[in-house]
# Entry
Amino acid sequence: MEWLNTNAGAVQAMSSVLIAMLTVFLVCVTYRYMRLTRVLAEAATEQLRSQREAAHARQTELAAEIEFWRAELDSFPQDSRPAQQEQEREHALALRDYDFSGFIKLASEVGYLAGTEASRFKVEIRKLFTQLNQARDTNPEFPSFHNFAWGTFYKRRITALTCLNSIETGLKAKLAGQR
# Structure
């Protein structure tokens, strides 16, 4: 103890140097931590921007699919004119094997209701294609639409359009909420 009393000035000087070195060390560590935090924040911001761009691209794809199917439904037969029937048989043949999984997945990203409506739309479209193909299969050369169940066909078409409208409404609401 006596040594500390006699060398108190030296002890204080050494402790001041040690505290200064520790302070410099802490400043360096804090500065590196700050730089790392900035890099992580920039990376997170970039990732969020990329996710938003990807979501926007998927929403744009869904909107395009909705318009595609709306145009397809609008081009379905409206009456029993033979020229239009031939065109619609070709549509039904070309689209009957359409893979709806991407459409349903995109709609599900909008929300549960939109995903459900997309699944319902798939069922209605498949029924429409089946109905058109049944008319074609009665006689491939000259399909008969004479006994075609137009009432059922129109109801399915309206149901399919209603599903598309519901999905589109959900998509517009989601886009409005993102702004």
